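Backbone-to-sequence.
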């Protein structure tokens, strides 16, 4: 059980975590959190609840909630020896090739990798949610799909944030009449906040899934509609690709940190490997004594991040295609070697570790939710279309936004993807391969029981956001609201600067510059949605960095 620390004066304004005795759902969207709670109240377990939230967010939070994308789910059933990792990451279509995004001059064509039908990986979300439900759920499939179907068919009052977000993307959507028809009214005008927003095509897709399960999406009408949209617009995904897609159960990445067990997502996510690798490197140091967000602490953490992300560029990729040295990377002896050349007074220039290139930035969107039920079953789920609304393309007749996850591959060695991440052969494009991800759904346990489920969107910044959550709670004894609200920072080896949020001490920044770091202020790093088990119940907290998030609890 975590000690819930006192809230310090500096955080006195921080909103409090929600408390409940019988379970908790924390997600980035209030209607979806309520769906999760309703399912728990109806006798569903945390997995039923998570599956229902996953389908509901495809309706209520279309910028990241999805049927046309992919993600990762970690499930820890009460009494089980370990969590189970469900990989429902998108796959490259059969016709994909390593050079498919290179133009005649050999340069990466970002339009092709990000905003066209060629950018789309074979969607995994429906397969993943259904696999989780089959394996661990208690309620019938129709029951976990019913709330999403109702929200799509009957509609819901357009939330102000969604109205604004859709309007903000009008230019990107304008290229695709099928998208315009879904997100704007028939006359092309935007929905105003509070107006009824219905998505009948999406409702029909969800009903086919409720009726026929996996086959209701990966074959039949929905698959035919997606494949037809691909054919019309030069995309690669065929009905054969869709029929072949399967979600995969993989061995979870496991590590320990100061008496807690840390479980997180294995490859094709880089998240779990590097989270454990960084925690291993940090273990020998008295982080708590050095203090939260103090110069020595940040300096050390940045050096640790730099080394982990350098390894990421070289060693991480889809384990079905590339032999990822997971055991080596997460070995404490390797961590001990890596920290050997950290100078506690001086930054290691990244180009002395590995060469790199500058980064580009594209507005991203992913979403995470965490659920723990009264029995102690825990789910930590992160899923995405990659960018907000993915490619921005809705496959005609489906209401489904299509991901642009193909951009997460390394299209060319040394050429950064949208998150400035570098890669090479390990993450090169190949038919049926899964692009490398940073999504890091995580479950922290003590004495065999889940005590914390957390995760975040944010592309490359996800892993370091989750790392800081864990240190804030375990080392710095913060409650989850304070731990979430505290200013974060990020380093990813290249570009060689510390990104930081408002709120870092001026003296700390000066001390970091004196150690040789370059600092760059950014708006927000990640957005954590966390549930924690405490003495008499559960605490939930949804990050305020992105609006509309809400933790909702279940009481008697
Ligand atoms: O899988 C990945 O690492 C990225 N596609 C995640 C994108 C993301 O988190 C965008 N969210 N803010």
């Amino acid at each position: 059980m975590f000690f819930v620390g006192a809230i310090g004066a500096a955080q006195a304004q921080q909103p409090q975590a929600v408390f409940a005795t019988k379970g908790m759902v924390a997600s980035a969207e209030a209607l979806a959190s309520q769906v999760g709670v309703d399912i728990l109240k109806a006798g569903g377990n945390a997995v039923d609840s998570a599956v229902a939230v996953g389908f509901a967010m495809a309706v209520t939070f279309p910028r990241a909630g999805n049927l046309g994308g992919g993600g990762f789910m970690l499930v820890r059933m009460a009494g089980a020896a370990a969590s189970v990792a469900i990989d429902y990451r998108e796959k490259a279509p059969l016709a994909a090739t390593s050079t498919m995004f290179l133009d005649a001059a050999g340069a990466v064509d970002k339009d092709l990798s990000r905003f066209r039908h060629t950018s789309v990986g074979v969607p995994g979300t429906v397969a993943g949610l259904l696999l989780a439900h089959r394996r661990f759920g208690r309620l019938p499939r129709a029951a976990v799909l019913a709330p999403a179907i109702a929200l799509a068919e009957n509609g819901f009052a357009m939330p102000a944030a969604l109205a604004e977000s859709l309007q903000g993307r009008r230019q990107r959507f304008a290229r695709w009449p099928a998208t315009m028809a879904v997100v704007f009214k028939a006359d092309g005008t935007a929905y105003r906040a509070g107006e009824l927003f219905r998505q009948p095509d999406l409702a029909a897709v969800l009903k086919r899934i409720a009726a026929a399960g996996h086959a209701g999406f990966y074959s039949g009408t929905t698959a035919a509609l997606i494949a037809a949209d691909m054919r019309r617009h030069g995309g690669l995904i065929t009905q054969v690709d869709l029929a072949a897609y399967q979600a995969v159960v993989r061995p979870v990445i496991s590590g320990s940190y100061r008496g807690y067990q840390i479980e997180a997502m294995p490859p094709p996510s880089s998240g779990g490997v590097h989270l454990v690798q960084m925690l291993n490197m940090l273990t020998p140091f008295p982080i708590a004594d050095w203090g939260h967000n103090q110069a020595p602490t940040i300096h050390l953490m940045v050096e640790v991040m730099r080394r982990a992300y350098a390894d990421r560029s070289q060693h991480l990729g889809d384990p079905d295609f590339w032999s990822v040295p997971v055991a080596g990377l997460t070995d404490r002896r390797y961590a001990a070697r890596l920290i050997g050349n950290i100078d506690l007074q001086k930054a290691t220039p990244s180009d002395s570790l590995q060469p790199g290139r500058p980064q580009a930035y594209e507005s991203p969107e992913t979403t995470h939710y965490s659920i723990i039920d009264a029995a102690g079953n825990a789910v930590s789920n992160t899923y995405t279309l990659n960018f907000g609304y993915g490619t921005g393309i809705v496959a005609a007749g489906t209401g489904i936004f299509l991901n642009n996850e193909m951009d997460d591959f390394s299209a060319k060695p040394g050429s950064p993807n949208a998150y400035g991440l570098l890669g090479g052969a390990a993450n090169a494009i190949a038919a049926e391969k899964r692009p490398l991800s940073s999504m890091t759904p995580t479950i922290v346990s003590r004495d065999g029981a889940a005590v914390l489920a957390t995760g975040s969107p944010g592309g490359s910044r996800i892993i370091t956001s989750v790392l800081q959550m864990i240190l804030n709670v375990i080392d710095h004894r913060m409650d989850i609201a304070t731990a979430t609200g505290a200013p974060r920072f990020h380093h990813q080896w290249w570009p060689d600067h510390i990104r930081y949020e408002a709120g870092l001490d001026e003296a700390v920044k000066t001390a970091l510059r004196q150690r040789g770091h370059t600092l760059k202020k950014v708006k927000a790093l990640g957005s954590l949605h966390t549930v924690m088990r405490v003495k008499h119940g559960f605490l939930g907290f949804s990050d305020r960095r992105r609006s509309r998030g809400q933790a909702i609890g279940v009481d008697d």
